[in-house]
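Quick start: what a row looks like.
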Amino acid sequence: MAFDGFISALGAVIPALFLAAGVYVYVSLARQISVRQVEPSATPLRLFGWPEATLAILLSVWFLLNIVASVSHEVKSIRTRDLIFYSLFSIGLFLAIAGFLRVRRFDLNSLGGFSRIGFGRAATTGGILLLAAYPLVLLAEVVTQKLARGALDKQEIIEVFNASSTMEQRILIILLAVTVAPLTEEFFFRFFLYGVTKRYFGRGAGVVANALLFAAVHAHLPSFAPLFVLGICFTIAYEWSGSILVSMTMHALFNALALTALAFPEVIPQ
């Protein structure tokens, strides 16, 4: 009996310790960012201007219109060709914005910190920061479940993955989730939209506005709070590391772990 009580107490303490560690990590990162001094450079980076701000507004309006459309209309079941179209459209939009910035003579490599750190270090840093973010995301999910009393529907892409009868569609969903989505969404939200918002309204407003839009664009109310927290963690990781590769790695790992959990429901609690 005493041993059972000890195990029960340990089971309650460990999640609290992980949560405290996650809060400590991200609060520490935020403090480091706030006191960081900008080092002078022989070739200072160009700042986003009104053309980029205009494009950011148009992109945000387009996202918001899609959110309204998805809420006001019943979404039909997603088919394989819909996933292909979404992937190609996201890549096309990514290339269009990147091309626009290149025409405007922005150095994307320096702005995004692509060569700031190596891929191995970016992957390691992203993995550690995602581990620290998980307790915060799970807390937001638990609070959402408590408020909704457990009556939550799943995101449609999850329903599609669970119900997919062909290996082709499952592979396509996995590729979309761990390659296309991290690449394009981190570029849209963290690199571009956050960069523009930070330029005109400061880091704090940029982090919050970016996370709000990131959560809302998924058009799934039960996931809003967890995705909002996740968006904040992604943005802090990007700002602290100076490399978009870190948040891309975090995003890819998060999606990969989520799909792994879906693929093995008998092993991993859903």
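That is the whole record. The chain has a mean pLDDT of 85. The two ends are 29 Å apart (CA to CA).
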